[in-house]
Amino acid sequence: MRKIPATMVTQHPDHASTPYWHAEAFISVKEETEECYRSFAELGAGEYKWDWEGKLVDEAVVERLFSGYYDYFSRHPLGKEKFLTFRLPNPKVETEFRLGRAFMGIISASGLANQVNLPLPPLFEVILPMTQSAKEMIAVQAAFRELTSLQHPLLKLSEEGIRHIELIPLFEDVDTIVNSDKILETYLNLHEAMFAFKPRYLRPYVARSDPALNAGIVPTVLAIKIALSHYRQFAERHQIALYPIIGCAALPFRGGLTPSNVPQFAQEYAGIRTTTIQSAFRYDYDKTQVIKGIRQLEELLPKGKPPAVLAKEEKMLRVAMREFAQYYKNTIEQIAPIVNEVASHLPRRRERVLHVGLFGYSRGVGKVKLPRAIGFTAALYSLGVPPELIGTGRGLQKVKSLKSKVKSEKSPIELLEKYYLNLKSDLQRAGRYVNKNVLAKLAKKSAAWQEVEQDIKEIEKYLGEELKPKTAEEKEHHNMVGRIYNCLQADLSAKKFITQAAVLRRSLG
């Protein structure tokens, strides 16, 4: 069996500070090859996601890696010890020609490795974003198989070239995550029918940011816990190895993974085999901390076993998830205009294509469009209203009063805490960035912000403490939020203060 890395570096543009190896915070496409090499050689990460989804991309990445760092990759070969994994553009959303370009990059990398006497194939696995069905997964693999069957003398592959691509499905909304084992079930059957063999293993990938953006933090965490329990049963039933991946970032709303809380994270998401290591993790913390954190993840994640969620408990959790999500969505739909306005002031960190027209897509809740998860999270933190809190207070109040329809030894709140281990600590951490002064001003203009004030009051009752900044940095962040709000009111650019606040909390969004 192949080596399964515990850490997957990504190009998510959520860092606030300047990378340790760079002169500025912005990272261009041409600099991402160097970032990839440094992630392997200096930070010790095992995998790097080369992202084709919604961003510009250097299509000659393997040639650049082999030509620039041949000695390193001869000792730590791609595809054997270190792994480069393309996240494909989804054909449902982005134009098909980009998918073809990604495929040709994988095929040409195989030929190049053969030419320079390195193990092949160096690339053999891809991530399909927004996966919602097994047919989508099979269609991508079938298209790749057809492309590699070309027989023209100028395009014909060598006998050693790659013929089949392994597929990692990325599940990005709460409902799909909860039911993703059913998609995998269908996929196994279709795969055997199409290719006459079953995969040796699967790496189901659960998103952490986009489901939180669409449904809130509590439903997202609970959905992942249910999925992990299902995966455990699936692996036992089919006698196939499952190595789940999670897409986590630094702030609690998007996963809460930092170099300083790895043991806590590993306990929360026991059963996850690989986690993403996004830009804020790598560049907003001291490099020695980062290296230590990656080593801890590589050591701890392989040991984790997911708890089994009993059927009667899952039923109750699903009821709670709907309650939390409803409160969250109702508020987000109403505050979307100011979220989008603040997001327009954010500093750029990567070269993304526009999320409009031919080249793009946007995220949304209900009838409104929103920024991507990083911009959304950054905008709300910049207003002193961490999104972790929205809908959560009212959800907790509602769940307390729920009459369980199934017999359980635990109350609904106890059941919630049983599976969301870090619920209190996540709320406490986010609550330190609340600015009640700004929120009170917002609440005078909209009932939606009054609902957020209610959320905070209910969370404070639940925690038994006031949500407020405690450290000097958190108090400075509080002041910075006031300046951001004043700039917005005066129709001035708030980018400078937004950036300074992000540096203080060690993540843009």
Written account of the structure:
There is one protein chain. The chain is an alpha/beta fold and 509 residues long. The protein folds into 2 domains: 7-303, TIM Barrel, CATH 3.20.20; 311-505, no CATH class. The protein contains 21 helices and 12 strands. The strands form 3 sheets. Strands 1-2-3-4-5-7-9-10 form an 8-stranded parallel β-barrel, surrounded by 4 helices. A two-stranded parallel ribbon has the order 6-8. A hairpin with a 2-residue loop joins strand 11 and strand 12. Helix 8 (209-215) crosses helix 14 and helix 9 packs across helix 13 (311-343). The longest helix is centred in the middle third of the chain and has 33 residues, at 311-343. The two termini are 37 Å apart. The model is unreliable at 354-361 (pLDDT under 50). InterPro entries: PEP_COase_arc-type (IPR007566), Pyrv/PenolPyrv_kinase-like_dom (IPR015813). Keywords: Carbon dioxide fixation, Lyase, Magnesium, Pyruvate. It holds the Pfam family PEPcase_2.
Question: Can you summarize this structure?
Answer:
The chain has 21 helices and 12 strands. The protein has an 8-stranded parallel β-barrel, surrounded by 4 helices. A two-stranded parallel sheet has the order 6-8. The protein has 2 domains: 7-303, TIM Barrel; 311-505, no CATH class.
